[in-house]
Amino acid sequence: MDNDTKPKGKEVSRRDFIKGFGGGALGAAVAPKLLTPGALSVQTGSGEVAVYSKKQVSLTVNGKPVSLVVNANETLLEVLRDRLNLTGAKKVCDRGECGACTVLLDGKPVYACMFLAIRAHGSQITTIEGLASEANLHPVQQAFIDKDGYQCGFCTPGVIMTTAAFLSRNPDPTRHQIQHALSGNLCRCGNYQKIFDAVTEAARKVRGA
To answer: What is the pTM for the complete model shown?
Structure first.
């Protein structure tokens, strides 16, 4: 059939099709609806999902209750360092590779630079500042002093926090288990042998041996 004999009728362009579709089922599915200041709801096929730009969160940090409003993209590390002035956790790689920012969240080590503060709502956070008791250093801290388990010190808080969590689960580790447990913490000074010696000594102290 040549161009002169094509049936005449209203042509629908790709733009018209997309506009029509967007205003119908798709528009109804994803159009946001204001819920509360800083919060949006997006309707999806499986239900309504809350999307926040800001949210108030409540945490327990080193045994003290904390309540503050955080941005949706604000990391736990930023809150600890910039808002709570707890600067022991270091901002070094800022992409979850070196472990210098490690803190304990409900007893488990996490990279604070990669953990959104909004996700920490209701959690117990322990930083290097909260590890010691009022009278004494934590056994891991003391062991790192005794065995010279640090050089420049940037990695040290994260290594100590990872070690404290590890020894709470395994107080009598082998050298290989220690190396594996600390594989997510990098020491740019290369002081690994003394770090491993310090962890071995910390394990002895934790066991009371």
So the answer is: 0.77
